[in-house]
Design goal:
Elements lengths: L1 H16 L4 H15 L5 H12 L5 H43 L6 H25 L3 H16 L3 H19 L16 H25 L2 H15 L7 H9 L7 H11 L9 H40 L3 H30 L3 H15 L5 H19 L1
Helix pairs in contact: 1-4, 2-4, 3-4, 4-12, 5-11, 5-13, 5-14, 5-15, 6-7, 6-13, 7-13, 8-9, 8-12, 9-10, 9-12, 11-12, 14-15
């Protein structure tokens, strides 16, 4: 119990202070878990990051879950996730309730949050592009993926793009794989891993059938967010197009409400996947938020439990590395398409908005301003522009 409380306290502190997105989160984790507390060494930490990069879902949350499991078993993973996630969930639920209660849709700062989202996603596209598409073949995969998503925007098309990129990666990039990949040991048994993956597959197959048969609101919410959490490669920003396709065209939430919440999600610490808490609240109150949050994060937990016993060997195989290379390139294209629609089309309504977004992008990219500070600056600048020119 003492170990679990220690994990909860440490992860809660990180959940309250880890601003700046997944890359920044990994830096905070290293400082706390590796350098200060010595819960694991640098090599083990690097191996955990590498494994989580291979999985769909929020990489930083998965790293936190894995460290919690190494420290305190299965329950250690659960409390590690709770501590890191709960602070931003609470803030986003409260924001959604305020949005609904006070008709914030026309507020100037809401429009400013949409412009902030444009700058942040543009920065994410550029950063991911440099890392995941460093050569012409991978740039080509990204561009084709973006074009297909823009022409045929749907969740099914996105999944098809990822599968196609995996096949291309297998044939094109396997021969360039890293030969000296370090092994990885973990206390989770292969039997536990198989059970966890079996639960994941059973839910992916069974939930849509049961949800359609019963027509229960909470079951429908859980089904939507569980499916999205199961197939999102590339982290928090890539969850945007899938969630948008699931909730906006179906009338569960309006496009403006969606973008306002996405902008607000940049201002809070912790994982961007907690955006699900905002959407769940907008759809069906606080209970909806709990259902959506559990739904979108549960696949990550099941995947970590299921993958850790097996991925050590898979990482050594050139074919698997090639597949992930192709998938990562397609992620850049999917994010590029999402940047245009709905981010750019919902956030940029005038030349002033575009110039405003360019300033915020420059703060992020050239001045290395933290994302949470850019959100604050964006809201203040938006209010000033509104007072002076409107």
């Amino acid at each position: 119990m003492r170990s679990l409380l220690e994990i909860l306290g440490t992860s809660l502190r990180l959940g309250l202070t880890s601003f700046g997105g997944p890359v920044a989160h990994l830096g905070y984790f290293k400082d706390e878990y590796v350098d200060k507390r010595k819960w694991l060494d640098d090599k083990t930490y690097a191996d955990i990051i590498a494994i989580c990069q291979f999985l769909p879902g929020p990489a930083s949350s998965q790293v936190g879950i894995a460290i919690g499991m190494l420290r305190g078993g299965m329950w250690g993973g659960v409390v590690s996730w709770l501590g890191f996630t709960i602070p931003s969930v609470i803030v986003l639920v409260l924001f959604a309730l305020l949005y609904q209660s006070f008709a914030l849709g026309d507020a100037t700062w809401i429009a400013s949050l949409k412009v902030v989202a444009v700058a942040i996603v543009a920065h994410a596209v550029l950063g991911l592009g440099k890392k995941l598409t460093p050569d012409r073949p991978r740039i080509a995969i990204a561009l084709v993926a973006a074009l297909i998503m823009l022409l045929f925007p749907s969740a099914i098309v996105q999944i098809s793009i990822i599968i196609g990129a995996a096949i291309i990666g297998f044939y094109m990039f396997s021969k360039n794989a890293e030969p000296n990949v370090q092994s990885f040991s973990v206390s989770i048994t292969k039997k536990q891993g198989i059970i966890s993956l079996s639960i994941l597959v059973a839910l992916l197959i069974g939930l849509p059938i049961i949800a359609q048969a019963l027509s229960n609101t909470y079951l429908n919410i859980f089904d939507i967010f569980f499916r999205v959490g199961s197939i999102v490669f590339g982290g928090g920003h890539v969850v945007l197009p899938l969630l948008e396709q699931e909730v906006v065209p179906n009338g569960l939430i309006k496009s403006g409400e969606f973008m306002a919440g996405y902008g607000m999600a940049q201002a809070v610490p912790g994982p961007l996947f907690t955006f699900a808490a905002y959407l769940g609240t907008m759809i069906n109150g606080v209970i909806g938020a709990i259902v959506a949050t559990v739904g979108i994060f549960l696949p990550s937990f099941l995947l970590i439990v299921g993958a850790l016993p097996f991925l050590s060997e898979l990482r050594k195989r050139s074919s698997f590395q090639g597949i992930l290379t192709g998938v990562n390139a397609s992620v850049v294209g999917i994010l590029l398409a999402a940047f245009y629609n709905p981010v750019f089309t919902s956030g940029i309504m005038s030349g002033a908005h575009f110039g405003f977004a360019a300033i915020l992008f420059a703060l992020l990219h050239f001045w290395k301003t933290p994302a949470w500070m850019v959100v604050i600056v964006g809201v203040i600048l938006g209010e000033l522009i509104h007072l002076l020119f409107v």
